[in-house]
Amino acid sequence: MVVNYIFASHLGKRRAVNEDSVDVFNLEEGLLSVVCDGLGGNRAGDVASKTAVQRIHKYFLENPQLDHLTKMKNALTDANTTLLQMGSDSGQYKGMATTAVVVFIAGNTVYWGHIGDSRIYLLKDGKLKQVTKDHSLVQKMVDNGLITSRQAEKHPHRNIIVKALGEEKDCQPDCDYFYLQDDQQFKLLLCTDGLCGVLSFNEIVKILSNGENLEEISEKFFHDVEESGSPDNFSYIIIKNN
Question: Which domains does the chain have, with CATH numbers?
Answer without folding.
Answer: 3-241 (3.60.40.10)
